[in-house]
């Protein structure tokens, strides 16, 4: 279902402001919106408009409604940077079959920071000039939540290893070359979860990642599905992972072995190819580096490739995210067969995990990450969350090692929820 654009146009006003305090500290209590890395990015709150989509058309219908809304918006923008003027934060289900669908939320208030420029955008959907707002920097004491319980989700570790073994068998039988299998873990907290606490812990612990919050999906992703800025397209592809040991010397040796590992290089190659092929029809030129670099995160290291291109066809960042999803980094190769295999052995609905999450502005510029290293708050219970992690499986994979890799990928969000 798509909600038609409001009869009255969106009215948005962006003004430059002086430093109001760290972006994440500005979020008031409640379901805030966030896209922040190293202190830069966007936060928003309030809901001027919500656009939803379902099934196969969850991207297309939402993207069309946004384009239409943006075209009719009345905008006074004194800053004129990507992310100024009206913006929408969004999050989309991994699978067309998921009831999670897709959502774009246009906040009533957005604060942005980039380089040395701060801005404030106020948005209304009733045709009236939005009311002025005063910003508050909420200085909050971060206390670690205690006694959070983690219990298996759809499959327990033994069952998940059996699913991985099954997938390896099906790869051997030639059904797919690579498939990404995920698992979920449920967290039960003692107190109600305040999303702002999770965001603050993730942003502090994982500064290389994009800390996001959209409609109850909260996490810190290292993977940029696509960024579009004034015609320049970038995508950071990650696939191939090794756990860190917390011993620098040992980690350097592991990084070198990751960069030589034929199993990880194969996994990575599939992911890069899927992104380059999906971008090609939208770009005049694309640049794909010959070999990956190793991205160091506090918990894991990944093989990483930055693919770039020059936009040819006027697609928006959201159109590009729809074209790129699902990349082989989160689904597999070939895509349709891998998606089918996931459905038959994973035993769960991924919801919006591993789907695109990010923002788009009225010009179509925006940033869409892959929703990884995240938790979904359940609607009914503010003390219950679903955490997710997945691993690329190829012929040379080992179920025990994949389970350990999934544990390492769960570490950031587990850590944000417990001592
Ligand atoms: C699926 C996840 O991560 C993806 C899978 C990776 C791998 O298999 O090596 C690495 C990065 C991500 O593209 C996850 O974190 O849940």
From TrEMBL:
TM region positions: none
Residue ranges annotated for the Chorismate-utilising enzyme C-terminal domain, each copy included: 157-409
Tagged with keyword ATP-binding: no
Top-level taxon in the UniProt lineage: Bacteria
Reactions accelerated catalytically: chorismate = isochorismate
Pfam families named among the record's database cross-references: Chorismate_bind
Keyword check for ATP-binding: no
Matches recorded under InterPro entries: ADC_synthase, Chorismate_C, IsoChor_synthase
Keyword list, A-Z: Isomerase
EC number: 5.4.4.2
Family of the protein in this entry: Belongs to the isochorismate synthase family.
Designated name of the protein: isochorismate synthase
Organism: Kineosporia mesophila
């Amino acid at each position: 279902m798509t909600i038609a654009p409001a009869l009255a146009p969106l009215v948005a006003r962006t003004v430059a402001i002086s430093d109001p305090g760290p972006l994440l500290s500005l979020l008031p209590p409640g379901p805030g919106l966030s896209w922040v890395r190293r202190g830069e990015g966007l936060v928003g709150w309030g809901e001027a408009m919500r656009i939803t989509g379902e099934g196969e058309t969850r991207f297309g219908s939402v993207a069309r409604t946004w384009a239409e809304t943006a075209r009719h918006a009345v905008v006074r923008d004194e800053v004129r940077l990507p992310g100024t003027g009206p913006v929408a934060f969004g999050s989309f289900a991994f699978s067309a079959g998921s009831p999670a669908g897709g959502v774009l939320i246009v906040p009533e208030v957005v604060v942005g920071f980039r380089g040395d420029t701060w801005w404030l955008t106020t948005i209304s959907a009733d045709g009236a000039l939005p009311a002025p707002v005063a910003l508050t920097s909420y200085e909050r004491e971060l206390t670690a939540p205690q006694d959070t319980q983690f219990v298996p989700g759809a499959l327990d570790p033994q069952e998940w290893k059996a699913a991985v073994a099954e997938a390896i068998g099906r790869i051997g039988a030639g059904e797919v070359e690579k498939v990404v299998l995920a698992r979920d873990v449920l967290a039960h907290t003692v107190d109600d979860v305040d999303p702002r606490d999770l965001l603050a812990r993730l942003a502090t612990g994982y500064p290389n990642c994009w800390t996001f919050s959209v409609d109850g999906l909260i996490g810190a992703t290292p993977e940029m599905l696509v960024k579009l800025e004034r015609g320049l397209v970038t995508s950071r592809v990650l696939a191939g992972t090794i756990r860190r040991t917390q011993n620098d010397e040992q980690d350097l040796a592991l990084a070198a072995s990751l960069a030589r590992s034929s199993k990880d290089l194969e996994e990575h190659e599939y992911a890069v190819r899927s992104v380059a092929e999906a971008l090609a029809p939208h770009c005049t030129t694309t640049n794909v580096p010959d070999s990956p670099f190793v991205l160091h995160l506090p918990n894991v290291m990944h093989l990483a490739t930055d693919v770039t291109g020059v936009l040819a066809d006027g697609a928006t960042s959201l159109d590009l995210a729809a074209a790129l999803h699902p990349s082989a980094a989160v689904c597999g190769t070939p895509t349709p067969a891998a998606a089918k295999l996931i459905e038959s052995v994973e035993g769960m609905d991924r919801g919006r995990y591993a789907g695109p999450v990010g923002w788009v502005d009225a010009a179509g510029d925006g940033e869409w990450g892959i929703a990884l290293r995240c938790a979904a708050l359940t609607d009914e219970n503010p003390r219950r969350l679903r955490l997710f992690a997945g691993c690329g499986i190829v012929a040379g994979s080992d179920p025990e090692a994949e389970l350990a890799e999934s544990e390492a990928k769960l570490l950031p969000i587990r850590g944000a929820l417990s001592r």
